[in-house]
Amino acid sequence: MTLPPSSAFLSVQPTDQGFEYWRTRPYLSETMQQQLQDANVLIVPLEDIRGVEGPVFLRGTDQLFQTLRRLEDQDVKVDVTIDDADYKELSLYSDSLALGSLVMTLFVVPLVVNVVSQWINNHIGAKSAGERVKLQLVVQSPDGRVTQLDYDGPAAQFESELRPALQALGGGGQGAPGSTTGALPPVQAERGDGGNHNE
User: Fold this and answer.
1) Residue 125: pLDDT band by 50, 70, 90 thresholds?
2) Per residue in 15-36, is it b (16+ CB within 10 Å) or e — as a string?
3) Which of 70, 118, 138, 191 has the fewest CB atoms nearer than 10 Å to its CB?
4) Which domain holds residue 25?
5) Rounded to two decimals, what is the model's pTM?
């Protein structure tokens, strides 16, 4: 399969860090490794951050997790790749809205991108649509091939930049078969309660 072309804001490359990589990280308990087998979307941590012990998530991860859970009635099963006791967030001082990394199956890509795009738009609120967004999407195809897409560009162009690349991967552009992506209610940038991320 030929990879989609990269652009000024989007980098596309193959990777070996798909579901198997993240479900078997050594810091996960056996219980958590087993629980992650049911997920088709993983919110994964940053590893080997200088001056930080253990894996960490970017500030706002809990909000994003709660938002993505709204898709559970559309066969999207999202989980956070860490045991609850080890969950911690890191604040990055940057001009960009950094959202971390999501690993997902090809089937759920359109739904996830749609909701993340809505979340971004609600999150920046009255701020300029030119605010930069950083997000890594790792997409695993049914044949096991894994593609990493790194977006670093204006919030207003997030979905329009990603959609052609995802279509080229076979991820569609309007929603998974039988989905109601276009009818999703507005997504609020709500704040999580900091509780159990893996229920």
Assistant:
1) low
2) beebbeebbebeebeeebbeeb
3) 191
4) 10-172
5) 0.83
